[in-house]
Amino acid sequence: MAINLEVPKKHRALVDQAHQVAMNMLRPISRKYDIAEHEYPKELDMLAAMIDGLSESGASEGAGATGVRRDGDDKDKSVKNGANLASVTSVAEMCWGDTGLLLSMPRQGLGNSAIASVANDEQLERFKGTWASMAITEPHFGSDSAAIHTTAVLDGDHYVINGEKIFVTSGERSDCIVVWATLDKSLGRAAIKSFVVEKGTEGVKVERLEEKLGIRASDTAVITFTNARVPKENLLGSPEINVEQGFAGAMATFDNTRPLVAAMAVGCARASLDLTRDLLKAAGIEIDYDKPAILQHAAAAKFLQLESDWEAGRLLTLQAAWMADNRKPNSLEASMAKAKAGRVGSDVTLSCVELCASIGYSEEELLEKWARDSKILDIFEGTQQIQQLIVARRVLGLSSAELK
């Protein structure tokens, strides 16, 4: 099965539309909501309505967080450029505009990605149109999702959830929260499941909003669950605990969401490169792609190195999404894309600040903001270090117990 990592012709109109939105709707309000942290960007309501309309008409081709789903038949051997590829390419363009605003988009939360990834058809229909945040991290652990202490105990027709979640993106604004909890701590990773908990459920409380370095337009919440009763039909996927399968069921969500986060890093870094090229040109430094870097200005040589690193991150991201569209196992590739794009995103944006000197460091341009925004993309959905550990396990054929 051949893969072509150019943007497919059928997605180009979607990518162009996303770029226009990023340039004309997100960039103009970017600084405003960076300064006004926790203030809801009301301009996004109209944009979200436009995206909903495109989705209803089929014109969006499955782009956005709700597009990350493995549809089709395993027996179908034809090459597909589907919803996952549409999602990562459009998300990258939106983050060329503003990452924090993309993360604030109604009905495009990471929880929506989780629902799209693992929900059954009935759940997909029931939760259609909802805005879902995702709650994984807890106060006592960061990247080790298997260390979850939040519990879900079956009581009749409901699960009773108790625990605390931190760093919940869109935790205050969303309609519901996809909560990761364990059905039985003694059974380890295999007992971890995800639940859709609707806002307004008794016992669910947003304790506070965090003040952050970047993505300040996006609200990041601490949420507690105290005897919160959730209908058992809101457990995503199978309620059965399969010890042999282990954590694979829960981790399948990440196979689809990590390429999305990688795409965010790709988009944010591309914005920095584009502006830096313009600023260097204004300073009399041209980037010459036909001349060896060693024969060019030091700033131009550095720019070429940054751009080549960025291209590697972009191609890995497209590969991971393409594999999902074609129903190929992509856990390794999803982690490779997230690790590379996350690291490159931080390196590119900070290096662009350095290359542009006082202009890069000041608020005269958005370069300093993109450097702040990009850092979280190397952290959430699994840190750089965790991604490298996952990649090492996959390459060496070792389990999590054998390589820690």
UniProtKB/TrEMBL annotation:
Please give the Gene3D superfamilies that the UniProt record associates with this protein.
Acyl-CoA dehydrogenase/oxidase, N-terminal domain, Butyryl-CoA Dehydrogenase, subunit A, domain 2, Butyryl-CoA Dehydrogenase, subunit A, domain 3
Record keyword Oxidoreductase present: yes
What range(s) does the Acyl-CoA dehydrogenase/oxidase C-terminal domain occupy?
245-396
Q: Where is the Acyl-CoA oxidase/dehydrogenase middle domain?
A: 133-227
Q: Its Gene Ontology molecular function terms?
A: acyl-CoA dehydrogenase activity; flavin adenine dinucleotide binding
Please indicate if the UniProt record lists Transmembrane helix as a keyword. Answer: no
Arranged from A to Z, the UniProt key words for this protein are: FAD, Flavoprotein, Oxidoreductase
List, separated by semicolons, the cofactors it needs. FAD
Q: Tell me the SUPFAM superfamilies matching this sequence.
A: Acyl-CoA dehydrogenase C-terminal domain-like, Acyl-CoA dehydrogenase NM domain-like
Q: Which InterPro entries match?
A: Acyl-CoA_Oxase/DH_mid-dom, Acyl-CoA_Oxase/DH_mid-dom_sf, AcylCo_DH-like_C, AcylCo_DH/oxidase_C, AcylCoA_DH/ox_N_sf, AcylCoA_DH/oxidase_NM_dom_sf
Q: Where is this region: Disordered?
A: 59-81
Q: Where is the composition biased (Basic and acidic residues)?
A: 68-79
UniProt family annotation? Belongs to the acyl-CoA dehydrogenase family.
- Protein name, as recorded: Acyl-CoA dehydrogenase
Q: Which organism is it from?
A: Nocardioides caeni
